[in-house]
Write a structure and sequence with these properties.
Length: 379
């Protein structure tokens, strides 16, 4: 009995041991999955727009006025005052805005036209136009008319009591002129003197026609070269007509007033005209009549040059055609008004009594002169 119990306990102990040994195996710990933060899908960035270029203000607006250029051949104050009269008339007719400018020289006028090709118009002599058209394509619109003449001349002036009687007498003499860019003031006389084999002495640049007359009047130079316009008779007509000139009917003594009226030359009561017993002086001497009332008694004409094509009114090479047409129409109408005589028609200004359409070919004669001399206007 005891033996049987003992065997039973042994079997149960063994069985318990086997159960313990056969228990469930330890399950290894599983790592918790790592939750990665979701990567944000980049949002597409719209392409950066190129900045829109602001268009330039239209020509003739207050922001981009039309520059009206006048060469400084006479008193700048007179030019500005008369120029403003013109600008106002053109503004009233077209609604466009204009700015009157008097550059410091003929060359500066040309440079401004070439530098501002789309908003400039200018009143420039034939030489300036010929050069500007070659430099950058400046285009002529009108030519000046002075008392029926489509041309003008240069005059050589000397002191009335000087010994000079012919151009040949000017060999070695001191020469006064306004500006090397002036057709009548310098270029034409320079060519004519060279063709005659005459070499002046010292050359004095005075700054303008008025200043040149003054220099001769004061004895600061031996001779000067300035513009010449035909004088008027007491009846108000030119001493000779353009037709007379073309027909070769004009003699040297017709350029100057009769000798017997010279002692009586003086400004009129208003100081607006230089009269000699009713004859009216229109050449450069008349421009200093107020400061030198006896200029005719002190300064005489020695000689007159060949005819020169009249001054021009020209536009910059890229000037808008439609705006140009408006101005041309308005300027033609303005030339027929009384206000014209207060502007460029004033003899103290440029003395234009009218305008006519001009062609580029009319200035070929000046281009030929420029080519022959090698003359240039440097910036």
């Amino acid at each position: 009995m005891k033996r049987s119990l003992y065997i039973l306990f042994a079997v149960l102990a063994m069985f318990a041991f086997v159960l313990a040994a056969c228990g469930p195996a330890e399950v290894p710990a599983t790592e918790a999955p790592v939750m990665e933060e979701a990567t944000e899908v980049p949002t597409a960035v719209p392409p950066t727009e190129e900045p829109t270029e602001v268009p330039a203000p239209s020509v003739g607006t207050p922001e981009n006025p039309i520059k009206v250029l006048f060469v400084p051949s006479v008193d700048a104050n007179i030019i500005v005052t008369g120029g403003e009269v013109m600008a106002e008339a053109l503004n009233q007719a077209t609604g466009l805005t204009f700015e009157v400018i008097v550059p410091t020289s003929y060359a500066a006028t040309i440079e401004e036209m070439c530098a501002s090709p789309d908003n400039t118009m200018a009143f420039i002599p034939g030489l300036g136009y010929a050069i500007a058209s070659q430099l950058c394509g400046v285009d002529v619109s009108f030519k000046a008319i002075r008392f029926g003449y489509p041309v003008y001349w240069a005059e050589y002036i000397v002191a009335r009591d000087s010994e000079f009687q012919t151009l040949e007498d000017l060999e070695g003499a001191t020469w006064g002129f306004g500006d090397q860019g002036s057709t009548s003031g310098y270029m034409v006389p320079a060519v004519e003197l060279a063709e005659l084999g005459i070499t002046p002495g010292e050359q004095v640049q005075t700054g303008g026609h008025n200043q040149t007359v003054t220099a001769v009047y004061n004895g600061e130079v031996d001779f000067g070269t300035v513009f010449y316009s035909v004088p008027l008779t007491p009846e108000g007509s030119p001493v000779f007509t353009w037709a007379d000139y073309e027909a070769g009917k004009v003699t040297d003594d017709m350029y100057e007033l009769p000798e017997d009226v010279i002692p009586n030359c003086a400004p009129d009561a208003e100081g607006k005209k230089l009269l000699c017993d009713g004859w009216r002086v229109l050449d450069a001497r008349a421009n200093i009549r107020t400061e030198a009332p006896d200029v005719m008694q002190k300064v005489r004409i020695l000689a007159i040059s060949a005819a020169i094509p009249n001054d021009t009114m020209a536009f910059g090479p890229e000037f808008p055609a439609d705006v140009r047409a408006q101005i041309e129409e308005a300027l033609t109408a303005f030339a027929a008004t009384e206000a014209w005589s207060q502007s460029i028609g004033n003899n103290d200004f440029y003395g234009w009594t009218g305008i006519e359409p001009a062609t580029d070919a009319e200035y070929d004669i000046i281009r030929a002169m420029v080519a022959a001399t090698g003359y240039t206007i440097e910036p």
